[in-house]
Amino acid sequence: MQKRLFALFFSLLLILNPAALLAQGGLDPELLAKIRKEANENSQIMKTLHVLTDIYGPRLTGSPSLKAAGEWAAKQMTSWGLANAHLEPWDFGHPGWANERLTAHLVSPVREPLVAEVLAWTPGTTGVVKSTVYQMVPPANPTEEELVKFFAAEKSKVAGKIVMVGRQTIIPVNFNPAPKRLDDAQAKARFSGAGPAGPPAMMNRPQPPAPQPGEPRKLNPREVAERIDAFLVENRAALRVNDAAMEQRRIRAFNNRTFDPAKAVPTVIISNEDYGRISRILADGTPVELEFEIVNRNYPEGRTAYNVIAEIPGSDLKDEVIMLGGHLDSWHAATGATDNAIGCATMMEAARIINALGLKPRRTIRVALWSGEEQGLLGSLAYVRDHFGSFESPKPEYSKFGGYFNIDMGTGKARGMSLFGPAEGADVLRTALEPFADYGFVGVGATRSRGLGGSDHTSFNQAGLPGISVGQDPIEYTTVTWHTNLDTYERIIEDDTRKSAAIIAAAVYLLASRDAQLPRFAAEAMPALPPARP
């Protein structure tokens, strides 16, 4: 009887006075226990992940599969009781693209299938293409003049050929693999609040050295790639082959940066092992013949892309908003499980937990699943621009915004957070989330950077709004699954994701229910925008 009376009292408390569930500096322990219980016993994460990956993956921006995944997510959140679920359009400006078929074979002097992926926004072949291979090795860090001279010497060698561009990348054996978990000392150092707490650096693209006074400018890698594509189109090469430059047959397949298939020949990335084998046979003086069939499809309607939005309406402060989300789009070489279907499933789950417990937030809680992240955070940038503006040019909703939680680092459990704002804001979250120390959560740090890049929280940071990045154990994210052909459902650790969802649900509900918004930078203390990138 006492348990029933307590449950009744607790339910009435949620409805009549959500602020009463805030203990000194955080949430009531009884509520935290309920959040944990719901996360562990009724989790929908793996079901959500299955649908987003196995049914709708991959989810390239502008593709029908991404739109269908968004429509399903909106319907699913509606079935959980969230309100106002809809797809919000924004202008991607490029047609959608999808690869429907790829066969790749070494046919002479031996017969062997190749491990390969297609470069996005490149054309398909006209039926089966079989031809001899020519390996073209452009100069490193060329000037415009040097590259033009190189092309003149190569012009007669590529017509009708399958052209391998560049030497094989030599990948040494790694005797010191990266740990899959952050140890507590590392995590505490990163999220102690004493210094920068942003995510670790990902893959830094090499840039040409700065020219000395009087020297001609070196072309950057993007300029070199576009000039090579134009050269191969103009001189009627049959197909381009790139080296994946990763060990153990992993492939990262990105895109033709012009988004115009007419400006490239059919292009594939093959495994480093296959690329090396072919290179060595060619070096023997033995001709090599390859065979490909590629079927790609363009979708003009993909010029309009969509973010997915759903809400838990607030009460007395319902015009103020707390957001959480992650990007729904993925690259096309796999089903985009760690990047970032699991992030979307986790944020959807955090909102489901809050709603399933009957919690009544004072501020509106808004879930956002972005598109266009992989092409440059485009969906979240459009949303922030249209809804909030920026510190320099705010819209009416700017002052009503209370924070955006973002997760986008794979399957590892949440170990800390990074908040754009003064240290006092990080203190609020750090204190409130201390009860999750047993889950491995160690703290919240603050950052002053308005730099754009990494993930969608920086779209908010750039605008001077409190973006909150969830830091995670690396597991295999940067080493194995990030943007690769191995990014699948099997790489997910369910228990880690449940812990993350519980932590995020607690943090979101805290910000949605406390009396004041998180402390922000005063106008005179707002960090300046960084210089525009060249």
Which fold name corresponds to the CATH topology of the largest domain?
Aminopeptidase
Tell me about the biggest sheet? 8 strands, mixed
CATH homologous superfamily grouping of the largest domain: Zn peptidases
Helix content: 25-40%
CATH class of the largest domain: Alpha Beta
Low-confidence stretches: 5-12, 195-204
Helix-strand blueprint:
Blueprint: H1 2-16, E1 22-23, E2 26-27, H2 29-41, H3 45-55, H4 64-79, E3 83-91, E4 96-108, E5 112-113, E6 116-118, E7 128-136, H5 144-154, E8 162-165, H6 184-190, H7 221-234, E9 239-243, E10 267-270, H8 272-283, E11 289-299, E12 304-312, E13 317-327, H9 337-356, E14 363-370, H10 378-387, E15 401-406, E16 414-420, H11 423-432, E17 443-447, H12 457-462, E18 467-472, H13 477-481, H14 494-513
Parallel strand pairs: 7-8, 8-9, 9-10, 13-14, 13-15, 15-18, 16-17
Antiparallel strand pairs: 1-2, 3-12, 4-5, 4-11, 6-10, 7-11, 12-14, 16-18
Helix pairs in contact: 2-14, 3-9, 9-14
